[in-house]
Amino acid sequence: MRAVALIGIDGSGKTTQAHRLAEALTAAGRPATYHRNAGGRRWLGRLAQRLGRPDAQRLVGRNGTLAVESVLRWLAIAAALLSCLITGRTAVMDRYSACQYASIRAHGGQRWERLARAGYRLFPNPQVTFLLTVDPAEAYRRIERRGTDHESMRWLTAADTAYRTLPEYPTFVVIDAGGPPDEVSHRIRAHLTGWLPADEADPPASRGTSPRDTGPPRIDGAWPRSGDPLPAQARP
After folding, report:
1. pLDDT single digits (tens) 30-63
2. β-pair type (32-36, 173-176)
3. Rounded CA gap, 210 and 212, in Å?
4. Cα–Cα distance between 99 and 168 in angstroms, integer?
5. How far are the Cα atoms of 192, 196, 219, 220, 224 from residue 231, in angstroms, in the given order?
6. What is the domain range of residue 65?
7. What is the pTM of this model?
8. Which CATH number does the domain housing residue 143 bear?
9. Cα–Cα distance, 18 to 188 (Å, whole number)
């Protein structure tokens, strides 16, 4: 397993779950490394405020924000993949290329998406991409509680819609991330029974009841057996 990616809107718990997954894989004898592939939007927003601007777009404009974010995330992903290629460890990606495509769509900069896809096409597809879903209102409450940054409900709703309209969406393993972190962790591990020992993964009965959250994606019309490795997730 080369890489696993966790994606979703801000406040969905990507960072917490990515750290936990890297630890679980390592404990199971599959050394893994956490990588935070941020696009620098939070950093750019803080810089804007220090310079007397309310946000990044007021500092460098929408196109400038998307350009900076796309380049920084590309460099972060490239560095993560190179590191894991050298060390042989599994890369647990906190954000991946789909996050950039969703950000671009949420910003309304569709023409930038074509350029981003051309650049990010160099990167291999993760074996599994988990989309952590949470109601934007709950995501907003989580962000406000942590107190390190701020996102508007309008942005969170737009980002949620963007993820669901990506052409890659049918290939994602959708995880309901609205519950407690332990519950979300169990759901994620239940989809990785091919790489985690049985006692590290939940039995099928403990998984969510959503049709998209009751097992791995259907492959050739059949559900993979619980002991089979999950096939690589194809991308359009």
Report:
1. 999 999 998 766 666 666 566 676 665 656 667 7
2. unpaired
3. 5
4. 11
5. 10, 15, 8, 11, 9
6. 3-193
7. 0.78
8. 3.40.50.300
9. 10
